[in-house]
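User: I'll paste a sequence; please echo it back and then give the predicted structure.

Assistant: Echoing your sequence first, then the prediction.
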Amino acid sequence: MIKSVKPKALITGITGQDGYYLTDFLINKGYEVHGTIRRSSSINTSRIDGLISKYKQNGQLNLHYSDLIDSSSLSSLVAKIRPAEIYNLGAQSHVAVSFENPMLSTQVGNIGTLSLLESIKSIDSGIKFYQASSSEMYGGGAKEMLDESSQFDPKSPYAASKVFSHNITKVYRDSYNLFASNGILFNHESPHRGETFVTRKITRAATRIYLGLQGKLTLGNLDASRDWGFAGDYVEAMWLMLQHDTPADWVVATGKTYTVKEFLDKVFTKLDLNFEKYVVSSERYYRPNEVDYLLGDASKAKSDLNWKPKHDIDDLINLMVESDLNLAKQEEVLLKENLIHPTWEYPTSK
């Protein structure tokens, strides 16, 4: 009997939120997953430690030291692994940080994408490539539904970097006949979202306030409107793009938008709290160039890929609040045992 060979996938940014969900999704699809992690003085795999203990021993999950600004390490990795698919999720993904450190944000976003595309062109042009594009590329200047033909108007170094990576992916697809697709993902959240992002900052703070561990939360623009979905749904769309007959670009979104204030109200109401008693807005935490309104039209993904979100915003909030309430209860126990010191206000949001 001939033993079947598992398809291999390489994921940059595997330690992030999307990396977590995509890794679990692909392994359950029968893939052997390889991921890149940066060599640093501290271990940065906490988000995927559960996956490592579950899958690494039998070779389903393999981690490699590499860096998106080190093109030679990426090329060597592609040559060594020979993956069937590459998912480029790695980036400095926090918009506010990209204003504070635009050089690093741009280098990580642009050099990594270009290095991977060059590696595919040189090593194996049959490798399928997924580029993580972002709704931030649109700029959010008008209250309209955005699709694959809508104009880009980036308003941050992060967004500008994403536009370059999006366009260079199209250049390599058209110039060298590579199977390279862009997924223009609108905001997608989960219990694994980083705590510096506004949705997770809200659910983390609300659950701490509910237990009396925190007094208030200071945020930036409460009127900013976003199309929020569940990250677990969105990674399926990534995979479907690379299973499609031809490469292309697709918007992934829910088609519904809510303001930060509306998100706050839903979260605090779930905990029988009035957010107005605890949340303040400060212009200090506004972006230098605000993105006011984002709403995606995923009609093409629905027709081409047969994809649509399985969770709405209320499902998402239920998942996040339940997870963060458990974390807050663990913190409460540690406080009672004097193992940690109390904090009155959770770190604020930009």
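Residues 198-225+256-293+312-336 form a domain with the UDP-galactose 4-epimerase; domain 1 fold (CATH 3.90.25.10). Residues 264 and 275 are 7 Å apart (CA to CA).
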